[in-house]
Amino acid sequence: MALLEIVTAPDPVLRKKAEKVREYNKELEKLVLDMAETMYAAPGIGLAANQCGVLKQVAVVDISPPDKPKNLLVLINPEIVQRDEQQDQMEEGCLSLPEFRQVVSRPSRIKVCAKNLKGETQEIIAEGLLARAIQHEMDHLNGKLLLDYASSIKREFYLRKRKKLLRKK
Ligand code: ZN
């Protein structure tokens, strides 16, 4: 296993749509294991393949607190098949957007269909923080970022600051 480099804004790969996984092989298994290790090391509660520079519909999520046993959820080609009408608001952060926070409204409960590492279909009913984390990662797979939920002023201010910082490095 290896730690992957987490891509940060404004890298264009974060704006691209990930492609569906069609082959369930050792390469995919390695990607998932490396992504999980990278997420735990960050630490974060979710990571999408785009954030590692790989345009495949793969995401890992684990919302369990650091002192509790791990509970890794692997999502391959995920699709939301049902959404609650009720929405929750919560502030989110993103490993690809250092120091950026944004309050986002999302359905509080969702039903997701996704493949596991063997290519088997799994159905997940998620609510609360888990539902939120899954929706955040699925946004990534569609090239969408937390920035898109912010006002244009806040978004442009942040991106200008990022570009300035990256030029200095
Ligand atoms: Zn993110």
Instruction: Give, in spatial order, the strands making up the sheet with the most strands.
Output: 1-2-3-6-7
Count of separate structural domains? 1
CATH architecture: Alpha-Beta Complex
User: What is the CA-CA span between the terminal residues?
Assistant: 29 Å
- SSE run: HEEEEEEEHH
Extended strand count: 7
Structural class: alpha+beta
- What does the average pLDDT come to? 96
What would you say about this model in short?
The protein is 28% helix and 26% strand. The chain has 169 residues and is of the alpha+beta class.
What brief labels describe this structure?
about 170 residues; Peptide Deformylase; five-stranded antiparallel beta sheet; 3 helices; globular; binds zinc ion
Structural summary, described in words:
The protein is of the alpha+beta class and 169 residues long. The protein has a single domain (12-168), classed as Alpha-Beta Complex (Peptide Deformylase), CATH 3.90.45. The protein is built from three helices and seven strands. The chain has a five-stranded antiparallel sheet with strand order 1-2-3-6-7. A two-stranded antiparallel sheet has the order 4-5. A hairpin with a 5-residue loop joins strand 6 and strand 7. The mean pLDDT is 96. The site of zinc ion (ZN) has 5 residues, from helix 2. Zinc ion binds next to helix 2.
